[in-house]
């Protein structure tokens, strides 16, 4: 059958046969080789034809359905989904790189967003890696040459995000930085120039990440809020000049928690390609998904090299490690690396070397599996408790991933800032949703679930419900 006539040989030694089947089909769909409406063969037939277990094909189909590439109904065949955006062209061949030249609320309260549970940090495993590397650093790693990161860590990170997030890059494209904020600041200052086309215009999701808003402003950006709905950012509704930079959190939007749909992803990539814009994809807590496996990164389906992918270990391990990374388009590597060296945004070598070992020994993946189960339980408990006690006042988000949970006031006229002040005075650390809007706000509350023990969620939600209902005291 033509469907498998040109199926590439599976690399059985590499493992992850499900991922290989998924990527072959995804790429065929994106390249137009499988047009919208095409009927797919049964999972049993395809499994026999390419020599894999049926469960391998079933899981690959489910991934493609979850990401919007396929659609099916009960009793009907699975077919390729219809997209509003034309299929993208083939992946550009790797280019030769140019030589690289030598805020918000206080911490400590219940339901605090943006912080992981550092009490669960794998101290013993990390100490072994750190101690071993501290005693055996090589001479050539101790000089000035590795200001953008040692190759071992770049390769370890790339191996991880290629397998788990679908990122396509080379080690040279990865810059090791102290934080995602440092990466945003670095890229913004490289890209936003008054003397260049589109100058200092930056689009950002509405509502959006307050720290990103502040950093872009400090870099001289003229911010244009672009509305987000249940399908993510909608570039068709942007009102403003064409941007040089577009900041998005597509896998788990901050703060709403929605996942950008495939049509929106393709539309964003096509817009950026056609207009010479660079997309900053902040993938800060996408490792944590509770209802399904993580959605592949936007960067992995970028065929025009318009996406700079940002990741961090602050949410997955601990903020105190001060390690994040940026995967930048090839054409920006030289300029971005030079700017990084000038700004001194570097990470100590012994920390980098220890993290490379921590990843390659499988310790990082094991920690992620453990914490995903822990956070899933905490998220479920928080959602259940808040819906039970606050459901008459708030519309609670689904809580399918990440470390924060969005809730919106049913009363559109509610003063969420006043409510947050009242709640936080009683030992909480919530954030008002209105503070995350650049335009007219929609009132709501942002909860963090990482440090909320499941057994404590009910009492905390009950207390919050009482505080929400208290009348506002005026002078």
Automatic annotation (TrEMBL):
It comes from Rhizobium jaguaris. In the C-terminal section; belongs to the class-I pyridoxal-phosphate-dependent aminotransferase family. It holds the Pfam family GntR. Coiled coil: none annotated. This is PLP-dependent aminotransferase family protein. Keywords: Aminotransferase, DNA-binding, Pyridoxal phosphate, Transcription, Transcription regulation, Transferase. Residues 15-83 form the HTH gntR-type domain. PROSITE patterns: HTH_GNTR. CDD domains: AAT_like, WHTH_GntR. GO terms for molecular function: DNA binding; DNA-binding transcription factor activity; pyridoxal phosphate binding; transaminase activity. The keyword NAD does not apply. It comes from the Bacteria.
């Amino acid at each position: 059958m033509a469907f498998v006539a040109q199926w590439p040989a599976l690399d059985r030694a590499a493992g992850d046969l499900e991922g290989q089947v998924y990527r072959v089909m995804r790429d065929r769909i994106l390249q137009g080789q499988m047009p919208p409406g095409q009927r797919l063969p049964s999972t049993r037939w395809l499994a026999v034809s390419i020599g894999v277990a049926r469960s391998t094909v079933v899981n690959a189909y489910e991934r493609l359905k979850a990401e919007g590439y396929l659609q099916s109904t009960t009793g009907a065949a699975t077919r390729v989904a219809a997209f509003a955006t034309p299929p993208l062209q083939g992946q550009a061949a790797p280019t030769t790189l140019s030589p690289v030249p030598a805020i918000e609320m206080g911490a400590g309260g219940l339901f605090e967003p943006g912080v992981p549970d550092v009490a669960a940090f794998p101290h013993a495993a990390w100490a072994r890696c750190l101690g071993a590397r501290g005693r055996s650093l090589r001479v050539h790693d101790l000089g000035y040459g590795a200001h953008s990161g040692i190759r071992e860590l770049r390769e370890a990170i790339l191996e991880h995000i290629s397998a788990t997030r679908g990122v396509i890059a080379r080690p040279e494209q990865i810059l090791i930085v102290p934080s995602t904020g440092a990466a945003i600041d670095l890229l913004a200052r490289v890209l936003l120039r008054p003397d260049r086309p589109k100058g200092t215009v930056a689009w950002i999701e509405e509502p959006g990440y307050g720290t990103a808003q502040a950093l872009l402003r400090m870099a001289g950006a003229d911010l244009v809020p672009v509305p987000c709905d249940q399908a993510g950012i909608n570039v068709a509704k942007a009102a403003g000049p064409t941007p040089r930079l577009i900041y998005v959190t597509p896998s788990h939007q901050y703060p709403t928690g929605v996942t950008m749909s495939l049509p929106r992803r393709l539309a964003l990539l096509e817009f950026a390609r056609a207009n010479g814009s660079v997309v900053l994809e902040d993938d800060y807590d996408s490792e944590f998904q509770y209802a399904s496996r993580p959605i592949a990164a936007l960067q992995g389906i970028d065929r025009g090299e318009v996406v700079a992918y940002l990741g961090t270990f602050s949410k997955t391990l601990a903020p105190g490690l001060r390690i994040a990374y940026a995967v930048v388009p090839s054409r920006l590597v030289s300029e971005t690396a030079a700017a990084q060296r000038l700004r001194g945004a570097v990470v100590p070598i012994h920390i980098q070397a220890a993290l490379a070992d921590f990843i390659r020994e499988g310790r990082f993946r094991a920690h992620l599996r453990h914490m995903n189960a822990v956070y899933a339980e905490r998220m479920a408990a928080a959602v259940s408790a808040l819906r039970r006690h606050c459901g008459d006042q708030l519309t609670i988000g689904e809580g399918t991933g990440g470390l924060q949970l969005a809730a919106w006031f049913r009363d559109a006229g509610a003063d969420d800032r006043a409510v947050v002040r009242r709640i936080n005075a009683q030992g909480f650390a919530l954030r008002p949703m209105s503070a995350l809007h650049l335009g007219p706000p929609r009132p709501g509350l942002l909860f963090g679930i990482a440090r909320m023990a499941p057994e404590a969620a009910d009492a905390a939600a009950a207390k919050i419900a009482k505080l929400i209902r208290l009348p506002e005291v005026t002078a």
